[in-house]
Amino acid sequence: MVIVSVQLIHKNIDTSSLLKSAFKLLEEDVEVSELLRISNTMAVTRLRYNDHGIMHARIVAGIALELLDILMNNNVIPTTLRDGTTKSIEEAKLVVLMASYFHDIGNAVHRVNHEYIGTFLAKDLLNRLLPKLGFADRRVIALRQEIMHAIYATEYNTKCLTVECGVVKVSDGLDMAEGRARIPYRLGKLDMHALSAITIKKVEVEQGTKEKPIKIVVHMDEYAGVFQLEEVLVPKIKTSGIGDYIEVYISTPTRQAKFYPISATM
């Protein structure tokens, strides 16, 4: 069992020299860090949304890599590896890492269509950064396009066509715990999204059953937090392409119940 948090990124890259190098490159690149900073200016300061900056990028990357490991440990093959656009598990994980880190940079232009905008902002970044990781020519193009697909399909209604894309999309919806989704509330945004979000205390991910290997447990003070799951998490799961591998439970101080797929006990 792991708690969705920023610490997960280090757990999931420390055994891979490629992933460590990529993460260092992302963290130290001036253009990348500035795009994430401006994304937060647009989303948090101007629109009073929750965090879309560097902390969110790190959290999503860590949990996405965790979900990919769970799936691979249950004999789910990364799609890019199956189709030959990546040549190793490390490269498939690189797609997940970079797509997670870049998935919200489109907010630096505008919240509307930010997934589409971010896809094309990422193209130039990837053309510049991937060669620094040792890739060239056709390999850069193949990896770039897989990463761009995973960014583009984080949009709610867009279907993910790879497992790698799916784990990025679901992970984007899992960054909802206390201290993260409270930002709009602190700024005075007292709509249902904000009031629902402040009830969520932590999100845990663990190995589930053979049929549903990803078990997500969302801990909340009260059932008002269900709104956050209905409006944010479940729509992303349904178009992730990996929904059949996932179960979501909600846990309150008095009970735990299955939330997705819908349970008769709910």
UniProtKB/TrEMBL annotation:
Transmembrane segments: none
Domain HD/PDEase stretches: 49-186
Pfam families xrefs: HD
Signal sequence, renumbered to the chain: none
Highest rank taxon of the organism: Archaea
InterPro entries reported in the protein's UniProt record: HD/PDEase_dom (IPR003607), HD_domain (IPR006674), MJ1020-like (IPR039967)
Stated name of the protein: HD domain-containing protein
Natural source organism: Ignisphaera aggregans
